[in-house]
Amino acid sequence: SQQGEEDPQALSIQEGENATMNCSYKTSINNLQWYRQNSGRGLVHLILIRSNEREKHSGRLRVTLDTSKKSSSLLITASRAADTASYFCATVMDEVTDKLIFGTGTRLQVFP
Amino acid sequence: ETGVTQTPRHLVMGMTNKKSLKCEQHLGHNAMYWYKQSAKKPLELMFVYNFKEQTENNSVPSRFSPECPNSSHLFLHLHTLQPEDSALYLCASSQDSGISREQFFGPGTRLTVL
Questions:
Q1: What are phi and psi of A93, to 5 degrees?
Q2: Does A31 contact B at CB distance below 8 Å?
Q3: Could you tell me which residue, B98 or B113, shows the higher pLDDT?
Q4: Over the Cα atoms of chain B, what is R_g?
Q5: Is B99's CB within 8 Å of A48's CB?
Q6: Which of A64, B23, B95, B98 has its CB surrounded by the most CB atoms within 10 Å?
Q7: Which is more confidently placed, B2 or B14?
């Protein structure tokens, strides 16, 4: 399946440290999106990166995409306790199979 | 707030009950989605509506019945559910169902089937 796999499944860090989460997928994609979910709540879109892009920034977030390795990473710099949440990558293959396919997520805990 | 609301936030029902989940979006979007989120499983897409027409039914059992009366409202009618249907049900919307559209999610309905 196209399902994204996040790595690690869980990550615990101290405030101020950087957090890196990785996502791997299996087939070619049109774009890859990262979402965040606070416990038991809905998902919030963070950033979208297209297949012809290699890196994007948004505030303290940095996303990279390596289509040759079929992988993406999300870096959160100078983490805060409020960053504690689950982070999901989601891929879109193409215009025909245009569904968002989500991975299983990385649970990030940031300790104050 | 994302502009997508869901009611109720929590629902407990027996296997013989009939209930409905409601989703409303205030964003002027034309596409709406139902997802199921179970523990330790990826988010599963259930249904997609684009301009009020159902464009995706991801092999969902008939005990789940969606309804989209207009582009702002989406319902999920539930009847004779099973305990394994207990999950967080998330509604989302996007401007349309184009592949580069970000989706805006509601807070979800936590459903428990006894």
A1: -75, -60
A2: yes
A3: B113
A4: 13
A5: no
A6: B23
A7: B14
Residue A10 CB: number of other CB atoms within 10 A? 10
Q: Point out which residues pair with A43 in neighbouring strands.
A: A37
Distance CA A42, CA A72 (A): 22
Question: What three-state secondary structure class fits A83?
Answer: helix
| B46 close to A (CB below 8 A) | no
* CB B32, CB B46: distance < 8 Å: no
pLDDT higher than 90, residue A76: yes
User: What 3 state SS string does chain B have?
Assistant: CCCEEEECCEEEECCCCEEEEEEEECCCCCEEEEEEECCCCCCEEEEEEECCEEEEECCCCCCEEEEEEECCEEEEEEECCCHHHCEEEEEEEECCCCCCCCCEECCCEEEEEC
> Would you say how long chain B is, in residues?
114
* B100 CB neighbour count, 10 Å cutoff: 13
Q: Looking at CA atoms only, how far is residue A85 from chain B in angstroms?
A: 14
Task: Flag whether residue A34 sits within 8 Å of chain B, measured between CB atoms.
Answer: no
Closest CA to B35 of A47, A51, A37: A37
Residue B64: C-alpha distances to residues A89, B41, B76 (Å): 27, 19, 7
